[in-house]
Amino acid sequence: LFLCTYFSEVAYATAEKNGFDPHEDKSNKTATHSSSGSVLMRTKELFQREPILGALCLEVLVCQCLSSLLQFIFLWKVKESIVDDQKRAGWTGNCYAIVNGVSGLLQVIVIPMTIKHVDPRRLWVFMPVVILVGALFMIREQSCSLHLAAPTFMAMKTMEFSIRGVANEMVYASLDYDSRFLGKEIIGLFANRFGKSLMAVGLSLFAGYSSARMEIQLAWGSNVLGLFWFLASYRLVDQIEASKSRVKED
């Protein structure tokens, strides 16, 4: 502990000697954020200054609602289809292992090799289209059977763990430090959590429905949210293009 304290003081002294004082930088950032007013006012000002963050916030909100719905359908159908607890736990674990494995391959190999040749804006439209295809099959079958719910849910989680992370960072990278810092904070705390909470409240309303009727309602719900996600993603793409146009004009 004493060694760590000693070396940290040496590091601060060296930094200050070369013209960089971490204490001063931290106090400046704290003063900047504290003088910005309330969170709501800062959020409003941020979204007015950077419309792309408002579009991203809406996209994340709808995406999290849909992800929570698909997870509910998946777990419900697994419990209904596989009665044995041990087999159900093993089958669910295998599904998550596949999701993690595919996500890892996409992050480490596929995305770095293809991102230079693919317009990132297409990624935003591609993701909801994939989920809409699975949701449309649910409508066609008039049910949320496990052989439809599992691939759709696994595709959603795979994209969340891989493609979405890259696409989000590419949006943030085009912003200044304050917009990037505050935008991540607002979207991470509000859009992600509020989307999941909102869907949890909505699903509680289905508690009194019969199993057959509930399947149809959830199938239609996944399609409606999938369509909203597509529209939110398309709006985000428009904001990305508008942001690039403003940068070129400046």
From TrEMBL:
It is found in: Membrane. SUPFAM superfamilies: MFS general substrate transporter. It is a multi-pass membrane protein. Its main location: membrane. Keywords: ATP-binding, Membrane, Nucleotide-binding, Transmembrane, Transmembrane helix, Transport. The chain crosses the membrane at residues 52-75, 95-115, 121-139, 218-237. It comes from the Eukaryota. Coiled coil: none annotated. One of its GO terms (cellular component) is membrane. GO terms for molecular function: ATP binding; ATP:ADP antiporter activity. Belongs to the ADP/ATP translocase tlc family. This is ADP,ATP carrier protein. It comes from Cyclophora tenuis (Marine diatom). The lineage of its organism: Eukaryota, Sar, Stramenopiles, Ochrophyta, Bacillariophyta.
